[in-house]
Design brief:
The protein has a domain of about 50 residues. Helices cover about 90% and strands about 0% of the residues. It starts with a helix and ends with a helix.
Length: about 90
């Protein structure tokens, strides 16, 4: 049987893995979707590669910004959880 500390450690790794999957998919999808949208707009307006490039850049910048914010929030929540849990463990 695993100790409670070991279970907590595994849960923390699971949260980081989940965050990695979420951020990777978000970044990839934002780049792909906005690039395809830019390509479609270029075809409609006859402005090939202008909106394709703009869409790719917006997707990359927007996705990266979202990833940074998400990781920061998750990290802060982990720190708060560690602080709250650390006080309880020290008292035992």
């Amino acid at each position: 049987m695993l100790s409670p500390g070991r279970d907590k450690e595994r849960a923390q790794y699971g949260g980081w893995i989940d965050l990695g999957i979420q951020t990777g998919l978000t970044l990839a999808l934002s780049v792909v979707l906005l690039t395809l949208g830019g390509r479609w707009l270029d075809e409609q307006l006859g402005t090939t590669p202008l909106f394709l490039i703009v869409g790719a850049l917006w997707g990359a910048l927007g996705g990266t910004w979202w990833v940074i914010i998400r990781v920061k929030r998750f990290s802060e929540a982990e720190e708060k959880r560690d602080e709250a849990g650390g006080d309880e463990d020290e008292g035992k």
